[in-house]
Amino acid sequence: MIDTKEARKLYLASGNAGKLKEFRLLAEACRRGLCLELLPDYAKFPEFEESAPTFAENAAGKAFYYSRQRDGIVFADDSGLVVPALGGAPGVLSARYAGPAASNEQKIAKLLFEMKGLEGANRSAYFVCVIAAVRSGRAVAVVSEKVEGEILDGPRGSGGFGYDPVFFFPPLGKTFAELRAEEKSQHSHRGKAFRRLLEVLD
Description:
The chain has helices at residues 17-30, 55-67, 104-114, 181-187, 189-201; strands at 9-12, 35-38, 73-82, 124-135, 138-151, 167-169, 174-175.
């Protein structure tokens, strides 16, 4: 069991301020009084190569790698979109699906091109998020969650990021890009995984 005081500050192993904003929103919604920060000097360290074949291995590897740079709990996530009809692609390559420097629009364009002609159940997809937390070289938790949906023929909405504009969430009848931030936090794979992480830390 981790002492509550020690668990109040969590360092996110990422240089993505947008991702930090989303996690902070989740922490506030959970009313746990947590302080979330980006790992100090993250950009100064050689980047961790996310080359493992699974989300869990990438998340854990990243958390262990960056935890050497800071005392306290360091957590990292690996997430992505899985389309069974494409053999699981984009999968762990979601962020690099259309090349390492591709924009969100380019990644979506490639996905829609690969899914051209697919209909019905073949357009089913799900988002996966795995979060790993490490402290002093020891794993504190590895949690995972997913959310089911389907891929539309074209983007809808202006919110979110990544594949959100084409990921349709049937229970709310909207794409993730059409959801308010609070709605997305409640239903998203990242939101569900982060709430599980907090349960473990408690």
